[in-house]
Specification:
There is one protein chain. The protein is about 35% helix and about 20% strand. With about 100 residues, it is an alpha+beta fold.
Length: about 100
């Protein structure tokens, strides 16, 4: 039996959905110990940076909705929260966050 982490699942889904030119997924669960949604197994809180042409012409809320739609299963299971930085390639080139 193969055990796939939530990080790996999200990376695969986001890659397939958005063909990102840049992506970082950081498990930030340890810094949320004792907070709502924390699970001692980890993988409950993530920081995701995603740069994709798919975000061109979309407002921030629309971008977030797209990502949440792709990661619905993970959010209904163990992932409690995601901090999202979603940029177009032009925004990424001009924005050093």
């Amino acid at each position: 039996m193969t055990s796939t982490t939530y990080h790996d699942r999200m990376q695969k889904k986001l890659t397939e959905a958005f063909q990102p030119i840049h992506m970082e997924i950081k498990d930030d669960s340890a810094s949320h110990a004792g907070h709502a949604g924390h699970d001692p197994r980890g993988e409950t809180h993530f920081k995701i940076t995603l740069v994709s042409k798919a975000f061109i012409g979309l407002a921030s809320v629309a971008r977030h909705r797209l990502v949440y739609a792709v990661l619905t299963d993970e959010m209904q299971e163990r992932v409690h929260a995601m901090s999202l930085i979603l940029r177009t390639p032009d925004e990424y080139a001009n924005d050093h966050f």
